[in-house]
TrEMBL record:
Keywords: DNA-binding, Phosphoprotein. This is Transcriptional activator protein ExaE. PANTHER family: TWO-COMPONENT RESPONSE REGULATOR. Residues 7-123 form the Response regulatory domain. SUPFAM superfamilies: C-terminal effector domain of the bipartite response regulators, CheY-like. Residues 149-214 form the HTH luxR-type domain. The modification 4-aspartylphosphate is found at D58. One of its GO terms (biological process) is phosphorelay signal transduction system. It comes from the Bacteria.
Amino acid sequence: MNEKKISVLLVDDHQVVRAGFRMLLDAQPFIGTIVDVDRGELACHEYDRKRPDVVVMDLSMPGIGGLETIRRLKKQDPQATVLVYSIHDESIYVERAIQAGARGYVTKNSAAEVLAEAVLAVSQGKRYIEQDILPNIDDFRHPSDTLHYGQVVELLSPREFDVFCLTARGMTAHEVAAELHLGYKTVANYNTQIKNKLNVNTTADLANIAVVLGIIKH
């Protein structure tokens, strides 16, 4: 008897990237049906319809974003298996994704076989975090100052965290609004909420926290 193949839901807002994922996964003998969508809202809808074995998802997307999508999927189905496939290799992103309910984390800079290996592993109930970013996670967990800031950033909602990261990198509210497909006033309100929650006054203060967390470099 043939083993059951793994059904996959791909979630990424770039069509070319999704096409590349499809080609990569189609080449694997253990992969079955592949469905792809371009944002989190559609991912929640398609998951309810298809109940795929694994959701392979980016974090930086318009709409509700990747972290909130993970939370909603886990609320829909506590057994949902999510593998994050992101450009971000900073430890705070990995921590946030795992806290939200992701089973694994792989960066887009990894070799093709790493993604395939990760999909297979998480489909079997295993946790998979790319080897190259594991040392960064250890660095994040142990220093007391970084751990303190990490606990503080946990106060932020998934969308506030997205705005925080982009603002800390020096993007203006208009640029953040365009990147996340949000209104300028919405982003301005998020920035106010973020500063209040983190007890800081300026964008420079946000950047300092982001440096400690490893989100941006000195």
